[in-house]
């Protein structure tokens, strides 16, 4: 996730507090980041710092940060409890589908807002009123694209379990429209050394039912922006 999105989010939250609350002082906000989500953590710290430097504000944010394995439900629950004991107004954090139920349970029970830079596709269940994802769902959009262009087969390249979960959501959406498509899966184990995987994909025979011999459709679903950048470098 880009730094600008995180900065814009926290400036918006700050404006909301300024308009709706006479509170003066330091407002505690909690943040829970995954071990490999350095970009969101950096953006969060930068945005909080920039907001606190504004001379015309009556209050400042006090960021309380945990860096954990977000897939671990126990660690995540413990971190949320720890943050709530400090009286945070809002939580900001990465989400993984393995522990989505934990976030759902805490936000619904205690009515604590939880803002996430993760895709909403990560959590397939209906979101609670207290969860906000900065990235919209894209599985239905991809399913509509497949139906619109009448793909009969496509290659699906992913690098995480979330990517595989997103594929399930795409196929469910297609099934609702009674649309049948074949998928060839390829998981990238290391995006920095994916050249051989990409070559193997390129050598695979195209769809025998395709009108064009060379026609091949590929969907990339990668976990980070840097992963996309690295893969695109190796395609050039």
TrEMBL record:
Q: Does the keyword Hydrolase apply?
A: no
* Ranges where the Receptor ligand binding region domain occurs: 41-225
Could you tell me the keywords of this UniProt record? Membrane, Signal, Transmembrane, Transmembrane helix
Q: Is Transmembrane one of the keywords UniProt gives this record?
A: yes
Q: Give the UniProt entry's GO cellular component terms.
A: membrane
Q: Which domain of life is it from?
A: Eukaryota
Pfam families noted in UniProt: ANF_receptor (PF01094)
N-terminal signal peptide: 1-22
Name of the protein in question: Receptor ligand binding region domain-containing protein
Taxonomic path: Eukaryota, Metazoa, Spiralia, Lophotrochozoa, Mollusca
């Amino acid at each position: 996730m880009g730094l600008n999105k995180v900065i814009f989010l926290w400036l918006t939250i700050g404006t909301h507090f300024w308009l709706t609350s006479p509170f003066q002082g330091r407002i505690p906000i909690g943040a829970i980041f995954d071990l490999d989500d350095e970009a969101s953590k950096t953006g969060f710290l930068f945005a909080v710092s920039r907001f606190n430097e504004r001379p015309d504000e009556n209050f400042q944010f006090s960021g309380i940060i945990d860096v954990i394995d977000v897939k671990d439900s126990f660690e995540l629950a413990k971190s949320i409890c720890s943050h709530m004991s400090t009286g945070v107004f809002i939580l900001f954090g990465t989400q993984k589908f393995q522990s989505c139920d934990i976030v759902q349970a805490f936000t619904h029970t205690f009515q604590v807002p939880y803002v996430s830079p993760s895709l909403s596709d990560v959590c397939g269940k209906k979101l609670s009123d207290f969860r906000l994802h900065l990235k919209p769902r894209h599985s239905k959009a991809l399913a509509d694209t497949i139906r619109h262009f009448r793909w009969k087969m496509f290659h699906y390249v992913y690098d995480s379990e979330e990517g595989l979960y997103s594929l399930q959501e795409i196929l469910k959406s297609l099934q609702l429209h009674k649309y049948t498509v074949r998928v060839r899966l390829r998981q990238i184990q290391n995006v920095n050394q994916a050249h051989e995987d990409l070559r193997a994909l390129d050598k695979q025979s195209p769809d025998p039912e395709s009108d064009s011999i060379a026609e091949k459709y590929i969907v990339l679903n990668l976990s980070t922006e840097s992963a996309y950048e690295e893969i695109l470098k190796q395609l050039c």
